[in-house]
Amino acid sequence: MSALKIALTKGRTEQQVIPLLEASGVDCTAIRHKERRLIFNDLPDIHFILVKGPDVLTYLNRGAVDIGIVGSDILSEQNNQQYDMLDLGVGKCQFVLASTPEFDPNQIKRKIIATKYPNITQRYFQKIGEDVEIIKIEGSVELAPLVGLADAIVDIVETGTTLRENNLQVYARLQKVSTQLVVNQLALKQHQTAIATLIQRLSTAKQ
Amino acid sequence: MLNRNLPVGTRDEFGATAQIKERMINQIQRYFRERGYAKITTPLLEYKAVFSELDLKTYQPYQLLDEQGETLVLRPDLTLPVARVMSTTGIKTPVKWYYSGDVFRVKKKLSGSYNQIAQAGIELIGYKSLKAEWECLVAAVELAQALQITDLKVELGNAKFVPLVLAALPLNEIERRNLQTALYAKDLSRYTTLIKPLATSDFYPFLKVWPWLFGDFATVWQQLQLLPKIKAVTAICEELKETQIFLQQRFPQQQLTLDLSIASPQTYYTGMIFRGYCQSAADYLFSGGRYDQLLSSFQKTLQPAVGLAFSIDDLVARTITGKPVETTLIYFKTSDWRQAEALVRKIPNSSLCLADNLKEARRLAETAGSRLVDVTGKVVQA
Known about the structure:
The complex is a heterodimer of chains A (207) and B (382). Chain A is α/β, with parallel strands linked by helices. Chain A has nine helices and eleven strands. Chain A has two domains: 4-91 and 178-206, Periplasmic binding protein-like II (D-Maltodextrin-Binding Protein, domain 2); 93-176, D-Maltodextrin-Binding Protein, domain 2, CATH 3.40.190.10. Helices cover 34% and strands 29% of the residues of chain A. Chain A has a six-stranded mixed sheet, with helices on both faces. A five-stranded mixed sheet of chain A has the order 8-7-9-6-10. Chain B has 382 residues and is α+β, with helices and mostly antiparallel strands. Chain B has three domains: 1-149 and 283-323, 2-Layer Sandwich (BirA Bifunctional Protein, domain 2), CATH 3.30.930; 160-263, no CATH class; 328-373, no CATH class. Chain B contains twelve helices and 17 strands. Chain B has a nine-stranded mixed sheet with strand order 1-5-6-14-11-10-7-9-8. In chain B, strands 2-4-3 form a three-stranded antiparallel sheet, with no helix packed on it. A three-stranded parallel sheet of chain B has the order 16-15-17, with helices on both faces. The mean pLDDT of chain B is 92. Classes of the chains: A alpha/beta (207), B alpha+beta (382). The interface between A and B is medium-sized, with 21 and 23 residues.
């Protein structure tokens, strides 16, 4: 049986998930001492690659990996079609609509919303029956209302510190976000026992 | 610069890939022709309305308008056009069609996916007997063997299983729909929460294992015993069991799996569904099933039908090993043309070297990475 291939979102997700993987019996020594390595295929039964969050589904959808570990923000934004099998209970945060204290959510106009997540933003405003103009921003979204590029932003908030530091406040709370274990639909058939065991162990470890 | 670029999601095919693909399609078509099937060809362009049965979010088509302003699409599916033919032409049933062709589905941009997908398959129309499903399965396994797929797994299921079990649960419509969504997405966290209120129900032991109700036939069968008796489900299970026994007798070495937890691969399937995959493939190699509601005849009576389609591109990708094929160029004088042609037929992967002199022939052979032989078959030294 070939090894199980996992794409792990590098950075904060990686740091939060490694203890869970270790508690599930997966040896993560190599990843802990990774230096500049991105591919870890020393173990016989489980291989890892470290990738950016938005790329996890690209690898997973093409069958280049069997499992992805990535935030639900990205799964939702990219309309994930693979099996979202387990909420790992880490990386918890929330989408919010935020802006400066002067912002009036009830003002009658077609609002301009800056975000890294245009699909999630569009779905939210569609749900509340409002049409908005969306501007896609790649990072530091909180700048947009401060310099007059947008009326408000839709972004992820963990503690709210960044918002407060930028004198922004929350006007609405949207969906919650956490790190998920996603499985390629065919890989689940090809590695049924190995994936079932991993999920079982991770479920126990997260409790 | 667009005159030198391909649109996103398309590709050219040449060399080994194109040859293997052509050979495979021919082999599949020949198999069905020899089995007594008739060929059907439908156009690439159809009205969008033909595909209203499909979830067009998953099968997003290329669209354009005709001169009357009607929406046309490049077909995203090959079964629905056959349904259109059957419901409008008065062709007498039963009938067994075989087809091959490309379908077009717009996928996520720049994701490495291709939007033009080659398929070859069959539609058996007017057959309500289980023998029609078995005919598809026999063809699928025999063709897989002929195409040298050694680790094929055949997966059986039934499109009605999940809806029938859900209907038997003491849930309201919304709860049922939520549970179905969580089950199909294998969202275990949500699924576990949703079944908690049913903890005292007779169904609970079954519900706990349901998302994992796939895999080796015997194991799934054993887990299925946890399900309280539902008459319509029993009939489905008997059909699956009979099919397993039939396939085991017909192909004793064939690995069989069962999946009773998935969404039907096509929304129009109404009965048994079957798919094939192997350990090394990134997608299913074939899929098919029964679709009794889709086709109505000229007289508006429903026609039972079963279909099967091979994913040619996935079969080809599995076959390309990356090993270069040894090729031979045959250098000859014009007077030896017939002899040279005879040699081409004798030496695999050889072709005529159309060079005027030996120096040029050597250069062509070196460029192509081929060995060079003369009309006697003797290797010409560089």
